[in-house]
Amino acid sequence: MAKCTLSRRTFERTVNTGAPTCQLLVPSSSVGPELLFTVDYLLGHRLGMAYTIIETAGPGQLVELWVGSQVISIPHSGFFGQLEQGISAIATPEVTGHDADCVLFPMALPQSPLWEFDLLAAVYYLLARLEELAPAWPRDPHGRVLARACATHAHGGHRYPLIDIWVARLRHQLHNLEVRGLAQESFAWWNTIDIDQVYASKGKPLWIRLSGIARALLYAHLTSAQKLAQALVGGPDPFEVLDQMKMPAQRNLLFLLCGGTTRYDLTKSRHPSILGQFVQAHLHDFEWGIHPSYASSQHTEIIALEKHTLETLTNRPVHYSRQHFLRFTWPHTQQSLLGSGITHDFSMGFADEVGFRAGTSRPYPFFNPLSRQPTALTIVPFSTMDVTLRRYMGHTPKQAGELILHIIQTLKECHGLYVSLWHHEALAEMEGWKGWKKLYLDIAKTLID
Description:
TIM Barrel
């Protein structure tokens, strides 16, 4: 993001010649790094506009966006001024409306008929994940935040990319004011895959392979036992399905777990020669990222070591990351990823619910709410995960498909980005995954068509 430069009482952002320009009049008590970041995100990053921020005296109840002699008025709640007192002073905002009409910081002012809430405050609150900084935020046994505690959850807003909807609304209003040359967005699909263990059987010690077959028989998973037995005598491994998972999506990305020592890291599946063979077999089919291990969110020095392991295996720089088990401590883990040379973090999503944890489907710049500084890290949110749908939400493939299609349709309506998250084991159709391979292929066909 471009830095705003101070010129007396104005902040300016210039872009390429020919970009639409505007002026934003903001009460002086609100002009700080958080507001500058939010304005640059909305006007510069999303709309491609050049702008000047002009401070106005007094607290005020409006932010005015002037384009030539025409103005769009947006309510001003004073939220950014409160940030000067520290994050602990920020209370959970009021939320009104439901589903796609959900809003934060509502303010019904007669002077602003087009906007009924503080847009800038709502955008920053969601992107900066301020609510997750509260020490009392409820978490699951793995330390992950629970979706039901989100301010928008009770209103159904977590299922909708609210920021994308608001950006589309603002773009439409500017278009009606005959503003031309705005940055446009279109629906796209990024197909992302997490690899927690490369094979179900191949490369593991014999006793592990035999115990896997015995366990499958004990729980009457006959198909799983048969597939594992076939792999034991030289047949294909059940997890050898990646050739079916690469799709004509805009991007195909793979995140590989190649470190960790806890029971959640599946250490028996990582013989160095097997990892090397796996990587070389699929090296040119995907963009590669690291899947930092279970403990990396608490011991962030691990991230650089595991990143180096993957770089050695691929013989190329690694800049993408997604946390294993989606475990991260916001914003400390993200800051550590940045320090390890990661440029894009794909961890922003819920483990227990589908939806939009940061209120947007699109990549956005990471602003550290504790240091109050913009950074070079990009946050890439995802909205659906196979494990969430089956294990946490208890959905059948049919129910999961209906929900995924709802998310996709919502994103198409606001020109969003669908970042899907699957594990290759789901296509092996073992131990509860029967029917999910068909779902994956059916959803892919819908997206491709």
